[in-house]
């Protein structure tokens, strides 16, 4: 394994059309910043590949305990670069297929990362930007943030897992409303629907997401990774298959050194009386 990622203090990796991915560490948290503020942080295939590689590499290090994904300036991301897509129409479809595959590899890297990944959303999260938010494990949004599956407005069907994420999170009617209508949805409504986890004042999404990431970074690394695996794998399993997977994960956790240390600490007489007691009944 490379030792480059844990030592990151700051880095900026260029993409085409002015889009870049910035990276820096805040203790155990890796912060990834989409940087193309002049174009509402529009993203492109170079950024897709860079971000996927960064997350895949980071996954191998226990010193990185959580990841925050944010946009530079006033917006999270307006999605794909329409100027690039207009040019792409003159080129073979196979090339665009490769670009979409790169985007999807980024989203799979987020799902498969052992660390929790939190989207911090200010301003607009449109089209591919909205799909990207939905691919993250958790979402913190400013109260005036706007979300839209705006593909329909330019005659496109979604990529980036937008249909999958919404179909799994919402009733069909609500999912289809967002996918077919294309008008912006508020952070408040998405919070009421259970899609956005936390709504914070304007300008505070990044700080709130980082604080939450720092909190999660103090949790048990291997257990958090197993919980992510269980949640995402449950989508394609029967109830019995999921119960069996939970059993195997619990046993692996229970007999790990990490669990032994945490149980011992929890039961320590030095703990305050109100925090002592038995764990979950299993």
Using only C-alpha atoms, the radius of gyration works out to: 20 Å
Sheet with most strands: 7 strands, mixed
Q: How many extended strands?
A: 10
Strand composition percent: 15-25%
* Element pattern in H and E: EEEHEHHEEHEEHHEHEHHHH
Helix content: 40-55%
Q: The CATH topology of the largest domain, please? A: 2-enoyl-CoA Hydratase, Chain A, domain 1
Mean pLDDT: 87
GO molecular function, one term: catalytic activity
Protein name: Enoyl-CoA hydratase/carnithine racemase
InterPro entries: ClpP/crotonase-like_dom_sf, Enoyl-CoA_hyd/isom_CS, Enoyl-CoA_hydra/iso
Family: Belongs to the enoyl-CoA hydratase/isomerase family.
Give an overview in words:
With about 280 residues, the protein is an alpha/beta fold. The protein has helices at about 45-60, 80-90, 95-110, 130-135, 160-170, 170-180, 185-190, 205-215, 220-235, 240-255, 255-265, and strands spanning about 10-15, 20-25, 30-35, 65-70, 115-120, 125, 140, 145-150, 185, 200. The protein folds into two domains: about 20-220, 2-enoyl-CoA Hydratase, Chain A, domain 1, CATH 3.90.226; about 220-265. About 45% of the residues lie in helices and about 15% in strands. Helix 4 packs across helix 5 and helix 5 (about 160-170) packs antiparallel against helix 6.
């Amino acid at each position: 394994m490379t030792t480059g990622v844990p030592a990151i203090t700051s880095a900026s990796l260029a993409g085409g059309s002015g889009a870049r991915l910035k990276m820096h560490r805040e203790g155990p948290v890796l912060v990834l910043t989409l940087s193309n503020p002049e174009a509402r942080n529009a993203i492109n295939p170079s950024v897709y590949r860079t971000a996927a590689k960064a997350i895949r590499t980071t996954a191998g290090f226990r010193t990185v305990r959580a990841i925050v994904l944010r946009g530079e300036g006033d917006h999270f991301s307006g999605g794909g670069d329409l100027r690039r897509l207009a040019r792409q129409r003159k080129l073979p479809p196979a090339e665009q297929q490769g670009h979409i595959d790169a985007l999807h590899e980024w989203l799979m890297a987020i799902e498969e990362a052992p660390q929790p990944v939190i989207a911090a959303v200010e301003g607009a999260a449109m089209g591919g930007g909205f799909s990207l938010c939905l691919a993250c494990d958790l979402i913190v949004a400013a109260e005036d943030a706007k979300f839209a599956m705006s593909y329909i407005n330019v005659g496109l069907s979604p990529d980036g897992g937008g249909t999958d994420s919404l179909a799994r999170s919402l009733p069909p009617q609500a999912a289809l409303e967002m996918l077919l209508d294309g008008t912006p949805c508020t952070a408040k409504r998405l919070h009421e629907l259970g899609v956005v986890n936390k709504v914070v004042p304007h300008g505070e999404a990044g700080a709130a997401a980082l604080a939450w990431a720092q909190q999660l970074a103090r949790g048990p690394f291997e257990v958090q990774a197993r919980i992510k695996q269980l949640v995402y794998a449950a989508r394609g399993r029967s109830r019995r298959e999921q119960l069996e997977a939970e059993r195997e994960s619990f046993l692996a956790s229970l007999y790990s050194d990490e669990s032994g240390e945490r149980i011992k600490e929890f039961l320590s007489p030095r703990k305050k009386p109100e925090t002592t007691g038995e764990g979950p009944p299993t």
